[in-house]
Prior knowledge:
This protein is mainly α and about 550 residues long. It has 12 helices and 2 strands, in the order H-H-H-H-H-H-H-E-E-H-H-H-H-H. About 80% of the residues lie in helices and about 0% in strands. The longest helix is centred in the middle third of the chain and has 143 residues, at about 240-380. Keywords: Coiled coil, Membrane, Transmembrane, Transmembrane helix.
Amino acid sequence: xxxxxxxxxxxxxxxxxxxxxxxxxxxxxxxxxxxxxxxxxxxxxxxxxxxxxxxxxxxxxxxxxxxxxxxxxxxxxxxxxxxxxxxxxxxxxxxxxxxxxxxxxxxxxxxxxxxxxxxxxxxxxxxxxxxxxxxxxxxxxxxxxxxxxxxxxxxxxxxxxxxxxxxxxxxxxxxxxxxxxxxxxxxxxxxxxxxxxxxxxxxxxxxxxxxxxxxxxxxxxxxxxxxxxxxxxxxxxxxxxxxxxxxxxxxxxxxxxxxxxxxxxxxxxxxxxxxxxxxxxxxxxxxxxxxxxxxxxxxxxxxxxxxxxxxxxxxxxxxxxxxxxxxxxxxxxxxxxxxxxxxxxxxxxxxxxxxxxxxxxxxxxxxxxxxxxxxxxxxxxxxxxxxxxxxxxxxxxxxxxxxxxxxxxxxxxxxxxxxxxxxxxxxxxxxxxxxxxxxxxxxxxxxxxxxxxxxxxxxxxxxxxxxxxxxxxxxxxxxxxxxxxxxxxxxxxxxxxxxxxxxxxxxxxxxxxxxxxxxxxxxxxxxxxxxxxxxxxxxxxxxxxxxxxxxxx
Length: 553
């Protein structure tokens, strides 16, 4: 048993799914081996995992892993199918080719539970088609199937379907159940095929017996008519009549048995119909839930948009607050400049006060010198104005000495200054001191007034800014609370959407399994899936339209 036989079997089964005529080229294959292989393969797909026993058996018989052989089977079938499409055997309308390609690829992908991106079909498609866009469109359609991702295990050289963790809980009891389930399935399928063959044979026999009974009834009626018309005719023998009665009784028993079988089949069909109706109701319920979730998501998006608008308004208010803060900074800088100017005036005041003190000290000195001068003048008035005698010669230098003292004290440039000039200068300095004191008081009052105005304006602006900051903080806290609530709602919606997606995935798996059962029924009963190639194209186009419709939904 070579690898090519395995590939041919896989291609035969895939060809039977899409095109009944291709299977005629592989009619010489061994039916028992084909049935065992298909049953084992369907059992593996139904279990959603590759068992170690099946991997070991296939590797022992073929020397290859199941994944590689399945890929070769897909390649073998797809190459033959696409070569048939582009060859001279069939020239479809250009608009029908993408429909056939996409529908075939989707159906093959659903049947194999894997995507085609993990093997080399895309490169072979690029070699077949002159325009690579068709291959790209095909790969795009294939990648639309979600829910299953293949990861390769390099240690075991096996393919494992990545599913939730609960799916991969395997123990020895599951393995034994799997073996028992496989043997039971194979036995049931064989028994079912035998029963269907017996049913067909019984139906043919019943039809034949009904024909015979009708013939006998017509002959009996004819004999009775002849007997009533002519009593001279020889009556039927008792043995002949008993034989006819026995055959009629046997035919009636077969008919009753067939009717019982038909009733059982009708009940089974009713059960399948009810299961299908239940699945359809669950599917409609899932669609309703999906619509509700979409509406909730839309409302959440609108609320998020409103929150974004509120956040933009808050940002504009923050910008206004920043502008007010810049204006407050400019006012503070102006206040600092006024403060520096006030300090400068204080320094000038201190300098003027120093100068006034110095002038007051000099005025006191002038008053002391003036008093001494007046005292000397009074003392000189007691002396005569005549020529000095010899006794007075010793006092002849008193006046020049006083004049020298007056010149040293009262004059800055060495010249003699009178007392009136001293008094005038003292009065002038006193007046200047008074003027400076008045200016200093006015400057203090003006500075204090400006300082009070600046403080009042600054206090008002600071109060307004504090109120604005408090309002912005409250609004920002509200925004954060709304964003937190929206995040909680989003997490809830994501959880519901994830649960709904899981449910839809399980529903798709169950419907795919039902599709397998239907295809197996067609194969076992040798019922053609399509009456002609035009019918196949029409069904595939309808399947593609339905897939596109549900994809948009």
